[in-house]
Amino acid sequence: MLGTLKKYIKQHLFSPLLVRSRFLSNLYYCLFSRNFSREHQAVLAGRMKHLSELNKTRSNYYLLVRNTHRIEKGLLMRPRKVHFASSYLQETMDSFNAVWGNRQVEESSDGQKKWFKDVLSEYFAVVEDTPLIQTERRRFKALVNGAENLSAPDRSIPYVREPGMFSNISYEEFYKLTRQRRSVRWFLPNPVPRKLIDKALMAALQSPSACNRQPFEFRIFDDPHQVAALSSIPMGTKGYGHRLPVFVVIIGNLDAYPYERDRHVIYIDGSLAAMTFMLALETLGLSSCPINWPDIEERERQMEKALKLEPWQRPILCIGLGYPDPAGKVAFSEKRTLKQIRTYH
Question: pTM of the entire structure?
Answer without folding.
Answer: 0.91
